[in-house]
Write a structure and sequence with these properties.
It is a single chain. The protein is of the alpha+beta class and about 350 residues long. It has 4 helices and 19 strands. It has a 9-stranded antiparallel sheet, with helices on one face. A 4-stranded antiparallel sheet has the order 9-15-12-13, covered by helices on one side. It is globular and about 75 Å long.
């Protein structure tokens, strides 16, 4: 009896201390994010601010790699001389006739134009059948996947991946009230939740032309500032390859305003869980397969997967600033309830709701 009482006392004390520690961690994380938000405009405007000093340097295929952040779910590298002038020209030539206004995810599975992202873009299909003949775009794209596989243990293949994206920002002088820029965002989920198959988990941004003023890439929550360097690349991944949990905001980033000159980049968003049968465009911008979202036929003899909705957020739930026009609240109303199952579970809050008609 004495031992049981002592055990209960210790467990209660430990639980209390863990709760306090978690509250302190959450508080410190919020302080860090708030400070980063306040410094965002200052750091973008400061042209004297150089690229953040690397934690360490290494080489890959003779190219200098600067490791800025090396956390399990958050890695940020720069790679010098990642692509060539000829490769840049090949991408730009392919993009020229199909450039259009850039879009952002709208929080409901689609995309739309937004003042948070002002640029021109064009998706460039890679002709893999010409790789053996020395096609410049295929050669560049192969190098992208080789580097991703050098850093991450997923053996990523090109099948089903997104097109290379040519993105161009144009400077119109310091008096421009709405300069070309990309406000802080995450390329994939950055809420610390489990990875959703088919979603993005790494990005490579390659710099073909750099502006005279502006255009830095800023990872504000990691305090990493990268001034673009011609023909260099910035790589970042946002998944823990062991736990399969996503980054918790450290790879949130922005493209600082381009004030003078032009910024021309080539971007590859890299996905995990795509292939020829399940390509990137079979998923909406929430990471849900269109067939899963539309199919509500239930179980049959050939399929024993029950109707359900896997853990998700209806809008952004990453602690970032609200994006105007996005979702911010939900009401679910129960008209008919099942005999078994169908509860709503808020797993991170420990709340379980059985439906009531």
């Amino acid at each position: 009896h004495v031992l049981d009482t002592l055990t209960a006392c210790v467990q209660k004390g430990v639980a209390t201390e863990i709760e306090r520690a978690n509250e302190e961690i959450a508080f410190q994380a919020q302080v860090r994010k708030n400070m980063a938000s306040q410094l965002e405009n200052y750091t973008c405007a400061d042209e004297t601010l150089n690229t953040t000093e690397a934690k360490r340097t290494e080489t890959w295929r003779g190219k200098k790699v600067s490791v800025m952040i090396d956390r399990p779910a958050s890695k940020i590298h720069t790679v010098e001389n990642f692509l060539t002038e000829d490769e840049c020209k090949a991408v730009e030539d392919a993009a020229r006739p199909i450039l259009h206004d850039a879009t952002v995810a709208d929080g409901s599975g689609g995309s739309h134009k937004s003042d948070s992202r002002k640029a021109k873009q064009a998706g460039i299909k890679v002709h893999w059948d010409k790789e053996a003949d020395g096609d410049l775009i295929a050669r560049l794209s192969r190098r992208v996947y080789d580097y991703v596989n050098h850093v991450l243990p997923f053996d990523i293949m090109e099948d089903g991946q997104e097109d290379l994206m040519s993105i161009q920002y144009f400077g119109r002088g310091p008096e421009d009230e709405k300069p070309d820029r990309y406000m802080p965002h995450c390329d994939g989920d950055c809420n610390g939740m489990l990875f959703k198959p088919g979603n993005r988990m790494a990005t490579i941004v390659m710099y073909c032309e750099i502006p005279k003023v502006g255009g830095a890439t800023r990872f504000r929550n990691s305090n990493v500032h990268i001034k673009p360097k011609q023909y260099a690349a910035t790589f970042f991944s946002y998944i823990d390859s062991e736990t399969m949990k996503m980054d918790d905001g450290f790879t949130e980033h922005s493209g600082c305003p381009v004030v003078e000159g032009e910024k021309k980049i080539v971007t590859q968003w890299v996905r995990l869980g795509v292939d020829k049968e399940n390509p990137w465009n079979s998923f909406n911008t929430l990471g849900i397969k269109y067939t899963d979202a539309e199919n509500n036929e239930g179980c049959n003899e050939e399929e024993d997967q029950p109707d359900r909705y896997m853990p998700h957020c209806d809008g952004d739930c990453n602690g970032m600033l609200f994006k105007p026009g996005n979702r911010m609240a939900t009401i679910v109303m129960y008209c008919e309830i099942p005999k078994v199952g169908g509860a709503t579970n808020f797993r991170n809050s420990g709340i379980h709701i059985k439906p009531k008609q």
